[in-house]
Amino acid sequence: MNLLRSLLIILFAGLTATVMAASINSSDLPDNTAWYMHADLKKMRATDSAKKLYDWLDVHLVMKAGKEFGIDLSKETDTITAFHSASTGSVIVVRGELSDDAKEKILSLARLNGDVEERAHRGSDYFWASEGDDERLSEGENETPNNEKGSDPLDDFDEQLFFSFAAKNTAIVTANEEQMKAMLESKGRITGSDSHKDAMFVLTADKAFVQAGLNTDVLDDDGDSGWESNIIRNTESAAILISDLDGNVAIEAKLVSTDPKMAESIAGIANGLISLQAFNSDLDSAAKSVLANTKIKVDDNVLSISTVIEPALFTDLLEY
To answer: ∠ CA 97-251-45 to the nearest 5 degrees?
Structure first.
């Protein structure tokens, strides 16, 4: 199911390596969420500050995924929302005016890659698809979500998936049949997704995903990597929220640590680095503006960092 896996693998590999992580309240997300991603491509296309971000996503996500779908996602996709729940597995919801031709191409591609069977739930059609080499699963025999498969965020689509175009202007993909039925009943609405209406991009991850299957007991505490190992070991959850603010890119980040002292220590180091760079004569005005607009706050074990970045500089960070 490579066409689906590309949606999140590229984002997690690219953006999480670019910017420090953040988090929105877990109460705003589906239950037992291991990771959550929302990208408002329509808003990015219409917002001057996000044009560079959209161009970056177009190259690293939309174009690559579009090649596998065989359709132009940049013209037919408004938003992409995806998450993984420990209880139900992964879910992807794509909103936009997908043409009948695009839907047929997706169906044809699924049939080419394996077995496809049409099913229905309360009058709404959906499809079961499986790799041709796997043993066929009968209706009602759903896989148990596997949360220990490593760093790949879409592992549970490897053997089978369920997808539907029944909801208006919406494509739904799930790894679990019961979850598909629930999504059809809600018309593709995801719990908590309305809490960040102004965001162009949201990405969250819990401890298991941040550590990506690492054995933290054997992480090296010595040398240059020692501090990084401690952060990884003590991170409970992390996330990032990107929005538009008066023509600039606003970034809000939070890191929830298992140890309040760790959150304080990270904040102290960040403040120290900012203070040092403020006197760096080689720093250009745009970078100095970012430092001046950066706010760092610690509330018990929660570290919050927010800043405002000019679009051109944000692009440089993405390409770094």
So the answer is: 25
H-state helical runs in the chain: 2-15, 41-46, 51-57, 63-69, 73-76, 100-113, 177-185, 207-211, 226-234, 260-277, 285-293, 311-319
What's the pLDDT tens digit per position in 120-171? Answer: 999 999 999 997 654 444 444 454 444 444 446 778 888 899 999 999 999 9
Q: Which two tokens stand for residue 29?
A: 């997300």
Q: How far apart are CA 195 and CA 36, in angstroms?
A: 13
| Lookup result for tokens 């309305």 | 194
Question: Is residue 42 within 8 Å of residue 79, measured between CB atoms?
Answer: yes
Q: How many residues does the chain have?
A: 320
User: What letter represents residue 70's amino acid?
Assistant: G
Kindly state the percentage of the chain with pLDDT values over 90.
19
Paired sense of beta strands 170-174 and 89-95, if any: antiparallel
Asked if residue 146 lies in contact with residue 140, where contact means CB atoms within 8 angstroms, the answer is: no
Over the stretch 71-96, which tens digit does the pLDDT of each residue have? 677 778 898 888 888 888 899 999 99
Token output for 216: 């933290």
Distance, CA of 211 to chain centre? 16
CA dist 111 and 109 (Å) reads 5
DSSP structural state of residue 60:
I
In 100-179, DSSP assigns E strands to: 114-121, 124-131, 160-164, 170-174
- Give the C-alpha separation, 145 to 176, whole Å: 8
* H or E element, residue 39: strand 33-40
Write out pLDDT tens, residues 163-208. Answer: 999 999 999 999 999 999 999 999 998 876 555 667 888 888 887 7
- Cβ atoms of residues 258 and 301 within 8 Å: yes
| Close Cβ partners of 216 (under 8 Å, ≥ 6 residues apart) | 229, 232, 233
Rounded to whole angstroms, the Cα distance separating 181 from 162 reads 10
Kindly report the number of other CB atoms within 10 A of residue 122's CB atom: 8
